[in-house]
Structure formats: C-alpha cells, structure tokens
C-alpha cells in the first residue's frame, strides 16, 4: 500500500518573530506593515512557492523510486489514423472556427501531425499517472512541505523535506530541482515589497516632519498643492515647447492640469529628498541571490574549446530570436578561443520545422559536420510551417556538398533515438525553469530570451552576472 504523510510546516503569524523591513533613525518598519497594501498578492506568491516546491518534490520522489527499482515510465501505444479522424470529426470548430490555429488554416496538412501530438501527449499523461501510482505502491513516503513564507529564503541544505522508505530528500536537492522558478517567485516578492517600502518610508518621513512642525499630516500635504496655479505665459511656453518637440497639445486645459500636478509633485519630491538626506535609513530587505544551475551537456553538439568557460545554449533553428542568438554566439567564438559552447535543442511548442533542423544538426554532429550543417541552417530562411527544409534529393545534394556520407545521414535521420534526445533536451530546459527559446546557462547563471554577445562574454569572463537576471 502507498502511504504518504504530508505535513505543512506552517508557523502561525503569532509564532513568527516580527521581521523588520527597514529602520528610520532606529525606528522599525515591520515587514507586516509594508505587506498590508499588497496582502493578496503576497499570499498568492506564497501559495505559488508552495505549489512549485510540491511539484519539484513529486519529481524527486519519482526519481528516487525509479532509481531504486530501475523502472521506467512506459510509452503509450501509437496513435492510430482512426483515432485522429475521430478526434477531428468530433471537434470541427477547433479547426474551422474563428479561433482555429492560424498554421492549420494556412496548411490543412499540418492538422494531422498536430492532432497526433496532442493525442500522444494526453495518452502519455494517462500512462505516466498510472505508472506513478504503481511505482509508489507499497512504499512509505513522508513529506514535510515548507510553507510559502519559509520558502521566501533558501532552506537549510541539510534539512529533510521528504523520506522515501527512510531515504531522505534534502532541502538542497529541492532547491536544485527548481532553483530558477523559486528565484523568480522570490524576486517578485522582493520587488513588490521594495515598491511598498518606498511608499512606507516616504509616509513615515512626512508624518515625522508634520509632527516636528506641530501640524496634522493633512496640512503638510496641502501645503504642497498651494500656489500651483499655472499662468497663461507659462502654459503657452509649455505648449510651444511640446510642439517644437513634435508633440502638439490638443487640450490646453489638460496641459494646465498636468503642469499644476508636476509643480506639486516636484515640491513633494524635493521635501522627501531633504528629509531622506537628513535621516538615517537602513533598508533590511535582502534581494534573493541568483540561482546556479547545473551545466548539462548530455553528448550535445559542441563548438569551441575542449575546456574553459562554458555556455549551454537551449535553442532551435526556427525561432527568430534563436537564430539571432546563434549569430551572437558566433561572435563570442570568434573573439574568445577558450570558450566552450554546448548546443541543446529546445522546442517549447509543436514545431516540425524546428524538429527537422534539430535532427539534421544532431546527425551532422554524429558524422563530424555539425559546424558546417549549423552554418547551412542559419544561412537560409526556415521553410513555412508544414514544409521541409530539404526534400530527399536536396538532402543528398547537401550531404555531397558538405562531404557527408548521404546514406549515413538518411539512416541517422530515421533513428528513433533522435526524437527522444530532442524531447529530453526540451524537457530538461522546462525542468530547469525555462519557458522560451533561446535560453542559456552561462557558468551556472540562467538567462532567458535574446542575449547579446557582449553580455554573454561578460559573464563568461567574470563568472557573475553584472546586471538583472532576464525573466
């Protein structure tokens, strides 16, 4: 029998030591105070942290059980043409209606591969759910899931968060399994609190100034809006300035209101700056540290040095930002001879064009021609969705031109191992926390989206990210 003991280690607010977000001249601003304006969002983010930790812990438990039993999740039965016809006939609005995918509207031949993939994925989910149930049967699994507030900071590495038949899963393993996703949620909480803290500090300074002057805070704020009348001369000068800058003003009354608001805002900002300069302000909020991800190569194609600073690039040859990223990588390789670049396939959505290119590049790597085929793929525009990069004759011509054995290339492309390897790369990228291509792990530092050669090279040289992590 499968036994799971789930314990949420939620600590009541009363039991927690009151945390301090900042101090002004020794006077504390409690964390609870700055959380109040965005309480609903903080609660939502805490729940997201708990949910993410639970998903990662589930994966770790399954891996531990698989490793001990050497069991593998089975593959579903192939989807038949009859099943595809039945699915297509049962949902005509999905393929013919106003919200049907644009690609299938342009190319009806793309419907069947898309339906086959969808049905295969649904069957895989069902098969894996049953396999997971059987895998856990008869095992004693205890889980101590930290609550959201605890997960705001990295847990103690040696802390046990689960036991699988008395074999521990530690917090360090949990942090590694979902480092990037936890970081993003922690960073979102930090940024939300930082915004609220700025407002809280400003309000505290203004309230203290009003107390010093012996007047209500409302009177102090009212003083800032006095004498903000905008005269005709001042208004006309502003309108003329806007017109000269190519921004004609259509409503002078609104312009007058804006100028009056700007006067009051400038006056308030000047006072707040003066108060800040004369106060001793300690900001105690700590920005979460950047995660360090594993540098996984998995026999992927490699260019550059045998050893040295490493860049793992999760890309494909179809998406426009990916192709631009490849060109930036070429600039790095040309400028830094000691850099090692590992190319992993990342195809986040169904895309037969990207899949074909990934197969070509992997086979070229096996045949010792990865660099040449990569240049070939980047040197031509990707075909339209549903069309092939190369027909059979064109493929053999390509092989001859690049000095590759054409029979070996054709045989390689039909290997079932290729699809599994591409899926494994994509699954790895998702598990690391990436959602879009291109994505990178540069000396352990994760980056998402298009990156310039300059920024990537800077990290490779310094082994630290000089700015903000891309989300």
Automatic annotation (TrEMBL):
InterPro entries: Thioredoxin-like_fold (IPR012336), Thioredoxin-like_sf (IPR036249), Trigger_fact/SurA_dom_sf (IPR027304). Keywords: Isomerase, Signal. Pfam families: Thioredoxin_4. Residues 302-460 form the Thioredoxin-like fold domain. Residues 1-17 form the signal peptide. The keyword Signal applies. GO terms for molecular function: isomerase activity. It comes from the Bacteria. The keyword Signal applies. This is Protein-disulfide isomerase. It comes from Methylocaldum szegediense.
């Amino acid at each position: 029998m499968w036994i799971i003991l789930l314990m949420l280690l939620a600590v009541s607010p009363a039991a927690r030591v009151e945390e301090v977000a900042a101090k002004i001249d020794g006077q504390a601003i409690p964390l609870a105070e700055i959380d109040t304006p965005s309480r609903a969002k903080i609660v939502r983010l805490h729940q997201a942290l708990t949910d993410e930790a639970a998903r990662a812990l589930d994966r770790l438990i399954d891996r531990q059980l698989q490793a001990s039993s050497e069991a593998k999740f089975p593959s579903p039965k192939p989807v038949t043409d009859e099943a595809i016809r039945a699915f297509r006939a049962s949902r005509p609005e999905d393929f013919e209606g106003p919200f049907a995918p644009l690609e299938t509207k342009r190319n009806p031949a793309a419907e069947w591969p898309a339906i086959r993939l969808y049905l295969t994925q649904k069957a895989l989910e069902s098969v894996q759910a049953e396999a997971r149930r059987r895998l856990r049967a008869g095992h004693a699994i205890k889980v101590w899931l930290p609550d959201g507030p605890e997960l705001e900071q990295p847990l103690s590495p040696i802390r046990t968060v689960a036991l699988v038949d008395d074999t521990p899963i530690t917090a360090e393993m949990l942090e590694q399994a979902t480092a990037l996703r936890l970081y993003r949620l922690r960073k979102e909480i930090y940024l939300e609190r930082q915004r609220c803290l700025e407002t809280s500090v400003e309000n505290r300074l203004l309230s203290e100034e009003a107390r010093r002057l012996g007047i209500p805070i409302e009177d102090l704020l009212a003083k800032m809006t006095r004498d903000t009348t905008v005269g005709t001369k001042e208004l006309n000068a502003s309108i003329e300035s806007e017109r000269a800058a190519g921004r004609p003003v259509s409503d002078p009354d609104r312009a007058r209101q804006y100028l009056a608001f700007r006067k009051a805002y400038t006056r308030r900002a000047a006072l707040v700056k003066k108060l800040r300069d004369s106060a001793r302000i300690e900001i105690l909020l700590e920005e979460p540290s950047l995660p360090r991800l594993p540098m996984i190569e998995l026999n992927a194609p490699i260019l550059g040095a045998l050893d040295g600073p490493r860049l793992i690039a999760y890309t494909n040859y179809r998406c426009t930002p990916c192709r631009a990223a490849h060109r930036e990588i070429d600039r790095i390789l040309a400028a830094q001879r000691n850099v090692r670049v590992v190319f992993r396939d990342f195809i986040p959505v169904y895309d037969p064009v990207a899949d074909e290119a990934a197969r070509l590049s992997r086979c070229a790597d096996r045949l010792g021609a990865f660099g040449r085929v990569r240049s070939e793929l980047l040197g031509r525009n990707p075909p339209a969705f549903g069309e092939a990069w190369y027909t059979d004759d064109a493929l053999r011509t390509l092989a001859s031109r690049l000095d590759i054995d054409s029979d070996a290339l054709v045989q390689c492309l039909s290997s079932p191992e290729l699809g599994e390897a591409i899926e494994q790369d994509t699954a790895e990228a998702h598990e690391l926390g990436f959602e879009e291509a291109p994505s990178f792990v540069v000396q352990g530092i994760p980056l998402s989206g298009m990156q310039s050669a300059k920024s990537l090279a800077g990290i490779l040289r310094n082994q630290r990210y000089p700015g903000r992590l891309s989300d």
